[in-house]
Design goal:
Length: about 110
């Protein structure tokens, strides 16, 4: 895929909590989705529309899953990317999952 990979500063993420942490995940997911779905810069990925309604299919979900797992260092179940879930909902799940992993020493 063209362009630089989308990254998330996981060290800085450890200092974020609540709404700030959620916003960081939403931004990261929107950028990741835009890259995987080839969304033009003038358009935006919606936080409230289901992922499938924004063009994610099984192949895109698999590529996104790998990218998210690599960036976050936690498993991202494919069903989170394929069901009627929004970016905002996925961000909340990932934020909680990674925060638990941080506190557990993962």
């Amino acid at each position: 895929m063209p362009g630089d990979p989308v990254t998330l500063d996981t060290d800085a993420l450890q200092d974020l909590h609540g709404a700030a942490r959620l916003r960081a995940f939403e931004t990261f997911l929107c950028r990741s989705l835009a890259r995987h779905l080839h969304v033009p810069p003038a358009h935006r990925v919606s936080l409230t529309r289901p992922l499938y309604a924004q063009g994610i299919d099984s192949l895109t979900a698999l590529a996104l899953q790998r990218a998210l797992e690599s960036a976050l260092g936690v498993p991202v179940p494919a069903h989170h990317l394929l069901r009627e879930q929004t970016v905002g909902e996925l961000a909340a799940v990932l934020s909680t999952t990674t925060e638990r992993g941080t506190h557990a020493g993962l």
